[in-house]
């Protein structure tokens, strides 16, 4: 099994000493993110997120399927994460590493278990037909802070996604093509975002946001906090690592809330821009005007 | 299995082999007699969340916990009653009147074995589970007890956990723990009648044992049936030379010529004797009531780890060793032949080939002997308080 | 089945009759198994776990590691200058009310393994045992909430029994809040040590702290909760951890005293020497 190349002792020392004198290698403040770029694809639900050199592509898709026997009134919603060898030689296909397991668990807890997507609205015919919404998250390039970027990409792709419109008449389900009827957005309840803190120092007294790959390699612990802009915690995960004062964790949470509000505003802005770009008038404009009623 | 990776030198192996094959009695490293079991600590009913549970600790520190869970399941109706292909061998005439309700399916029992550090689809784990399941299902008596009515039956889940690292071959430990867990297993009392949807008594105190208790407890259910059935036990027996050794420790198993897992059950009824199949061995014809009548349920050979041990190098072939006489060249030639063919006294060589039929027969006979080891083990288990 | 929390506001008693700041009965034993380097058994209410520690020892050969694969789960600081802490959790099929089997590939289990491994690695002096493995095997016998907390406590005790030098106990417990996340109700009380029913219905978190300090090694929250409630829950949780630590400490000291009385060890020898028996 190939292993990730470790940074040399000199590099480690350098990063740590810099952090101890309140400096980061790229000149950012401790609670500053790298510039976050979002671009939407031609298709609905395709989003590429760039956070510094970390690049993530998320694609949402939907298909009609049979609901689970134990949940006949709910649609199915899955998030699939893939860390391919493209991002780092340490990742192998079909062999989930610890990073991948933790990433997919965090996305699962943040987006799925917090009920961000209204799965009941995905039900078409109770117990027989429902939508299966699936988000594939591909890590194209890994330069730290995968979790925050992946979570942002997942939420963005789900909010951008439109599923085909459907109607039921006399028990016959019709799925319309985009030409017949404008696709409809998913039933979305709230937008959670992850904010990951990395800790440094013997007592974890230095806390840093959006660590790069090098910074992640030398951290002594991390804590991922998922919130939405209404100030609801969706999930907190400080999975071991060097113990950190409870008070500073509370402080981290309140800073995280500020960052989440920024994320939320950024995503709203980007989605609005994209909607404007797509609104070309003509037949599509008429149809969408109908939908606006 | 870590018992297969005993790190003993060829000299140690040779010493063990020699002392274990001593006549008339083998000399075991822990000073036990050949038929003596290691002392154990057992308790039952440790987990109130299960239908039955047991824990056994062997003196060498290996420990196992078994939990029994039962669920009601709808019986799949066969197309015709006659096409049922379940084991009818241990059938007694008493069952003839209950013809239509007689047998259960072997899928009514699900057994899983968990050994720390091993995947659950590891061959050793699967093999262990299969051996235990085979013994339990061999006579078809057990699944009969799980029948509720014509449409429903109990599905029993047996989860066998080895808590300690597998220091010695864990089969006997797991089997004894399973035995106790099944003995302590209780099912809610059935309130409904006939083939209607089953309804059970909520009162756990009124529940019935899967294996009814014997009549020295005041609430004996069957007055006429003196001997109460018990689940089977699987014992590990090995042979070194002409000696038969029970409950081998890890070091002993490392020099075994042959190792057998022998499953022994107890005859359910004392009234009639019927030899159903070739697996059925009656040891005592017409034994006195109250005496246990054993029968052989299954025999499996275990591949002893001794086959994988590295051989020693006799002096004759050892080039590093210079004997006072003979040139080195002649020695290597001679030695090469010796290595292939002969056993050199005091030099370890892994046993090859199978076991002699005589030895196998002796092994099995020794297990089933009246007042023998199986008897002793069952007696010991009876003494466990099934609170 | 929804939990009836309406009665709480009247009597201030929870479904199992506890007050808000009461722990369930914790019953723990160490040195439960003769063969292991360290072992423990821990009950928190009806949650029952067993732990066996092997090591620090030479790591298993490559063949073993390959076979156990993802099952053996998480390693921390695998090779190099420190000991790796390998945790494997077996959840018994009979542990919950309805029998449900979890494979070892289950991501939830893998997350638990990795959490426990890295929480303990921060307290254990792993740098004393380079190129070796401390293997912790946990068995869940019965589940009634606060599973992660019970697992961490059991693992800590077993590591103490194994005589592995460590900074302090890593003690864990859960905390919750009395009303569901939807209600933004300021008067909601924090709760200590959730059972299964409460865990299903109410927001809660698991905290593990190092020793008597306020330093949090593990903080896991898996339910939606108002950010304003975090402080109260965390405070109660940290306080609960201190209580748990006191209980664990008593268990270790009682066992030590007993062993001195029975003559298993001589009084005054260090933990290190207790291993030679």
TrEMBL record, chain A:
<keyword id="KW-0271">Exosome</keyword>
<dbReference type="GO" id="GO:0005840">
    <property type="term" value="C:ribosome"/>
</dbReference>
<dbReference type="GO" id="GO:0071038">
    <property type="term" value="P:TRAMP-dependent tRNA surveillance pathway"/>
</dbReference>
<keyword id="KW-0694">RNA-binding</keyword>
<dbReference type="InterPro" id="IPR050590">
    <property type="entry name" value="Exosome_comp_Rrp42_subfam"/>
</dbReference>
<feature type="domain" description="Exoribonuclease phosphorolytic">
    <location>
        <begin position="191"/>
        <end position="257"/>
    </location>
</feature>
<dbReference type="GO" id="GO:0005730">
    <property type="term" value="C:nucleolus"/>
</dbReference>
<keyword id="KW-0539">Nucleus</keyword>
<dbReference type="GO" id="GO:0016075">
    <property type="term" value="P:rRNA catabolic process"/>
</dbReference>
<feature type="domain" description="Exoribonuclease phosphorolytic">
    <location>
        <begin position="32"/>
        <end position="164"/>
    </location>
</feature>
<keyword id="KW-0698">rRNA processing</keyword>
<dbReference type="GO" id="GO:0034475">
    <property type="term" value="P:U4 snRNA 3'-end processing"/>
</dbReference>
<keyword id="KW-0687">Ribonucleoprotein</keyword>
<dbReference type="Pfam" id="PF01138">
    <property type="entry name" value="RNase_PH"/>
</dbReference>
<dbReference type="InterPro" id="IPR001247">
    <property type="entry name" value="ExoRNase_PH_dom1"/>
</dbReference>
From TrEMBL, chain B:
<comment type="similarity">
    <text>Belongs to the RNase PH family.</text>
</comment>
<dbReference type="GO" id="GO:0071035">
    <property type="term" value="P:nuclear polyadenylation-dependent rRNA catabolic process"/>
</dbReference>
<feature type="region of interest" description="Disordered">
    <location>
        <begin position="76"/>
        <end position="105"/>
    </location>
</feature>
<feature type="domain" description="Exoribonuclease phosphorolytic">
    <location>
        <begin position="36"/>
        <end position="188"/>
    </location>
</feature>
<dbReference type="GO" id="GO:0035925">
    <property type="term" value="F:mRNA 3'-UTR AU-rich region binding"/>
</dbReference>
<keyword id="KW-0271">Exosome</keyword>
<keyword id="KW-0687">Ribonucleoprotein</keyword>
<dbReference type="GO" id="GO:0005730">
    <property type="term" value="C:nucleolus"/>
</dbReference>
<dbReference type="InterPro" id="IPR036345">
    <property type="entry name" value="ExoRNase_PH_dom2_sf"/>
</dbReference>
<dbReference type="GO" id="GO:0016075">
    <property type="term" value="P:rRNA catabolic process"/>
</dbReference>
<dbReference type="GO" id="GO:0000467">
    <property type="term" value="P:exonucleolytic trimming to generate mature 3'-end of 5.8S rRNA from tricistronic rRNA transcript (SSU-rRNA, 5.8S rRNA, LSU-rRNA)"/>
</dbReference>
<feature type="region of interest" description="Disordered">
    <location>
        <begin position="267"/>
        <end position="290"/>
    </location>
</feature>
<dbReference type="GO" id="GO:0071038">
    <property type="term" value="P:TRAMP-dependent tRNA surveillance pathway"/>
</dbReference>
<dbReference type="GO" id="GO:0034476">
    <property type="term" value="P:U5 snRNA 3'-end processing"/>
</dbReference>
<keyword id="KW-0963">Cytoplasm</keyword>
From TrEMBL, chain C:
<dbReference type="GO" id="GO:0000176">
    <property type="term" value="C:nuclear exosome (RNase complex)"/>
</dbReference>
<dbReference type="InterPro" id="IPR020568">
    <property type="entry name" value="Ribosomal_Su5_D2-typ_SF"/>
</dbReference>
<dbReference type="GO" id="GO:0003723">
    <property type="term" value="F:RNA binding"/>
</dbReference>
<dbReference type="InterPro" id="IPR027408">
    <property type="entry name" value="PNPase/RNase_PH_dom_sf"/>
</dbReference>
<dbReference type="GO" id="GO:0000177">
    <property type="term" value="C:cytoplasmic exosome (RNase complex)"/>
</dbReference>
<dbReference type="GO" id="GO:0071028">
    <property type="term" value="P:nuclear mRNA surveillance"/>
</dbReference>
<dbReference type="GO" id="GO:0016075">
    <property type="term" value="P:rRNA catabolic process"/>
</dbReference>
<dbReference type="GO" id="GO:0005730">
    <property type="term" value="C:nucleolus"/>
</dbReference>
<feature type="domain" description="Exoribonuclease phosphorolytic">
    <location>
        <begin position="22"/>
        <end position="165"/>
    </location>
</feature>
<dbReference type="InterPro" id="IPR001247">
    <property type="entry name" value="ExoRNase_PH_dom1"/>
</dbReference>
<comment type="similarity">
    <text>Belongs to the RNase PH family.</text>
</comment>
<dbReference type="InterPro" id="IPR050080">
    <property type="entry name" value="RNase_PH"/>
</dbReference>
<dbReference type="InterPro" id="IPR015847">
    <property type="entry name" value="ExoRNase_PH_dom2"/>
</dbReference>
<feature type="domain" description="Exoribonuclease phosphorolytic">
    <location>
        <begin position="168"/>
        <end position="239"/>
    </location>
</feature>
<dbReference type="InterPro" id="IPR036345">
    <property type="entry name" value="ExoRNase_PH_dom2_sf"/>
</dbReference>
């Amino acid at each position: 099994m190939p292993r990730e190349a470790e940074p040399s002792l000199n590099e480690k020392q350098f990063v740590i000493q810099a952090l101890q004198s309140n400096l980061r290698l790229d000149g950012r403040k401790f609670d500053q993110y790298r510039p976050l770029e979002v671009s939407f694809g031609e298709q609905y639900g395709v989003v590429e997120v760039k956070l510094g050199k970390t690049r993530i592509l998320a694609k949402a898709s939907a298909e009609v399927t049979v609901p689970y026997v134990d949940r006949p009134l709910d649609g199915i919603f899955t998030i699939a994460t893939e860390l391919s060898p493209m991002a780092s030689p340490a990742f192998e296909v079909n062999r989930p590493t610890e990073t991948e397991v933790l990433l997919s668990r965090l996305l699962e807890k943040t987006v799925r278990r917090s009920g961000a997507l209204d799965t009941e609205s995905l039900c078409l015919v109770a117990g027989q037909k429902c939508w299966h919404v699936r988000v594939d998250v591909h890590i194209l390039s890994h330069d730290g802070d995968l979790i925050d970027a992946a979570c942002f990409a997942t939420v963005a792709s789900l909010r951008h996604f439109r599923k085909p419109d459907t109607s039921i008449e006399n028990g016959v389900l019709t799925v319309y093509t985009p030409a017949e009827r404008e696709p409809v957005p998913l039933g979305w309840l709230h937008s959670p975002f992850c904010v990951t803190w990395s800790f440094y120092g013997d007592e974890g007294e230095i806390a840093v946001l959006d660590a790069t790959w090098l910074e992640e390699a030398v951290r002594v612990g991390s804590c991922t906090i998922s919130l939405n802009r209404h100030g609801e915690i969706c999930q907190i995960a400080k999975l071991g690592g060097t113990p950190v004062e409870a008070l500073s964790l509370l402080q981290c949470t309140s800073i995280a809330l500020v960052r989440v509000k920024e994320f939320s505003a950024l995503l709203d802005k980007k989605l609005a821009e994209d909607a404007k770009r797509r609104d070309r008038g003509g037949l599509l404009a008429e149809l969408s005007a109908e939908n606006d009623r | 299995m870590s018992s297969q990776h005993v790190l003993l030198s060829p000299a140690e192996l040779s010493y063990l082999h020699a002392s274990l094959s001593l006549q008339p009695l083998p000399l075991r490293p822990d000073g036990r007699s050949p038929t003596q079991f290691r002392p154990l600590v057992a308790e039952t009913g440790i987990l109130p969340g299960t239908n039955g549970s047991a824990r056994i600790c062997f003196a060498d520190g290996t420990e196992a916990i078994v939990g029994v869970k039962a669920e009601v399941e709808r019986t799949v109706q066969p197309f015709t009653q006659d096409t049922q292909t379940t084991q009818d061998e241990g059938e007694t005439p008493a069952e003839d009147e209950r013809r239509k309700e007689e047998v259960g399916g072997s899928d009514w029992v699900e057994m899983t074995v968990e050994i720390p550090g091993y995947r659950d689809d590891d061959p050793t784990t699967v093999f262990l589970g299969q051996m235990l399941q085979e013994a339990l299902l061999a006579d078809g008596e057990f699944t009969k007890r799980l029948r509720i009515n014509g449409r429903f039956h109990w599905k029993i889940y047996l989860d066998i956990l080895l808590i300690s690292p597998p220091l010695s071959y864990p089969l006997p430990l797991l089997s004894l723990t399973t035995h106790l867990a099944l003995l302590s297993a209780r099912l809610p009392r059935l309130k409904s009648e006939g083939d209607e949807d089953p309804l059970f008594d909520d009162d756990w105190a009124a529940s019935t044992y899967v294996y009814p208790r014997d009549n020295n407890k005041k609430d004996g259910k069957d007055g006429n049936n003196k001997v109460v059935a018990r689940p089977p036990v699987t014992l590990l027996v090995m042979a070194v030379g002409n000696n038969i050794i029970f409950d081998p420790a890890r070091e002993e198993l490392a020099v075994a010529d042959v190792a057998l897992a022998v499953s022994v059950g107890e005859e359910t009824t004392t009234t009639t004797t019927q030899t159903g199949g070739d697996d059925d061995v009656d040891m005592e014809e017409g034994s006195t009531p109250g005496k246990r009548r054993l029968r052989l349920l299954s025999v499996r050979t275990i591949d002893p780890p001794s086959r994988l041990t590295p051989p020693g190098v006799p002096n004759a072939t050892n080039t590093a060793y210079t004997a006072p006489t003979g040139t080195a060249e002649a020695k290597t030639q001679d030695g090469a032949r010796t290595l292939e063919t002969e056993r050199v006294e005091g030099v370890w060589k892994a046993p090859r080939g199978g076991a002699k039929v005589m030895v196998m027969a002796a092994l099995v006979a020794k297990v089933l002997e009246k007042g023998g080891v199986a008897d002793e083990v069952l007696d010991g288990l009876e003494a466990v308080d099934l609170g | 089945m929804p939990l009836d929390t309406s009665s709480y506001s009247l009597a201030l008693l929870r479904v199992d009759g506890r007050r808000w700041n009461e722990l369930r009965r914790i019953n723990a034993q160490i040195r439960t198994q003769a063969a292991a380097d360290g072992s423990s058994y821990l009950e928190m209410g009806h949650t029952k776990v067993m732990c066996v520690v092997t090591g620090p020892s030479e790591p298993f050969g490559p063949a073993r590691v390959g076979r156990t694969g993802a099952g053996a789960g998480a390693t921390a600081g695998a090779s190099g200058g420190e000991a790796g802490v390998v945790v494997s959790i077996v959840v018994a099929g009979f542990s919950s009310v309805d029998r449900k089997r979890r494979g070892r590939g289950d991501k939830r289990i893998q997350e638990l393994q990795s959490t426990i491994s890295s929480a303990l690695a921060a307290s254990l002096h792993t740098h004393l045992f380079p190129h070796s493995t401390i293997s912790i095997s946990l068995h869940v016998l019965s589940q009634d909430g606060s599973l992660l907390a019970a697992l961490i406590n059991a693992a800590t005790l077993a590591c103490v029994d194994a005589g592995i030098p460590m900074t302090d106990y890593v003690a864990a417990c859960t905390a919750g809040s009395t009303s569901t996340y939807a209600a933004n109700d300021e008067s909601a009380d924090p709760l200590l040590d959730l059972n299964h029913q409460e865990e299903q219905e109410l927001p809660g978190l698991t905290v593990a702290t190092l020793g008597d300090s306020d330093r949090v090694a593990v903080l896991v929250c898996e339910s939606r909760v108002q950010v304003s409630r975090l402080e109260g829950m965390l405070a109660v949780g940290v306080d609960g951890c201190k209580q748990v630590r006191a209980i664990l400490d008593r268990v270790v000291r009682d066992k030590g005293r007993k062993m001195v009385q029975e003559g298993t060890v001589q009084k005054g020898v260090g933990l290190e020497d207790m291993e030679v028996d």
